[in-house]
Amino acid sequence: MMKHGLVIMAALAAYAGVAQAETPAAEPGFYARAYGGLSTLNDSDISTGGANANARFSSGLLVGGTFGYDYAGPWRSEIEYTYRSSDVDSLPPTIAREGDYASTAIMVNGLYSFGALGAVQPYAGAGIGFVREVDFDLTGGPAAGQYSDTGLLAGQGILGADLALGQRWTAFGEVRAFFIDDPNLPGPAAATLQAQYQTIDLLLGATLRF
User: In angstroms, how far apart are the furthest CA atoms of the chain?
Assistant: First the structure.
């Protein structure tokens, strides 16, 4: 799934790069965004208490928002707060029967708009930040408990497109590749759990310019 998502993002970037029209002029100003969608967590190797296994996850929920500034050129910058959560779809009973892996991240993003394709304005960007919390909750097994940490480095790549709905409102859609760097999560009784956290996200939202 991660590889498929990166292929999609590369294709969208190539498509955006062929746009010939110039970016429409606009006044600089602040904006706010709200969005929601699906977050697909990549399969992960898990290690805890001397047990090793592979976990698979179902598609989960993503919700968030940003506050940013449009420089009236191709560039925008913003600060973001996003929540992601995915349930465990498959996990050996030597670890646990059920679980969910969730995170809240605070990111600083830079976005670059390409030439317009009619009413659609494609863009690409990247972000860096940290997780306010990442936690893996396990139930019904030897490793049952809550494993969590804060302040870990996170990064993401973004490809999206805006659709103007008026002078102040814009609808948008995005594909994102998000990762948390090397989660090693403390848990109950001094136990730790290691599990990768990499997602491909599909989201829709709306932007309000001030």
Answer: 60
Q: In this structure, which CATH number among 2.40.160.20, 2.70.210.12, 1.20.1260.10, 2.60.40.10 belongs to the domain 2-19+28-209?
A: 2.40.160.20
What was the pLDDT predicted at 22? 41
Q: Are strands 192-195 and 75-90 parallel, antiparallel or unpaired?
A: unpaired
**CA-CA distance, 99 to 200, in Å (whole number)?**
20
> Domain residue spans in the chain?
2-19+28-209
The per-residue b/e assignment along 70-100, b for 16 or more CB within 10 angstroms, e otherwise, is beeeeebebebebbbbbbbeebeeebbeebb
4 three-class SS: helix
Write out pLDDT tens, residues 33-48.
999 999 999 999 888 8
178-209 pLDDT per residue, tens: 999 989 999 988 889 999 999 999 999 999 99
- Alpha carbon distance 185, 131 (integer Å): 12
Q: What is the dihedral of CA 24, 29, 35, 38, to 10 degrees?
A: 60
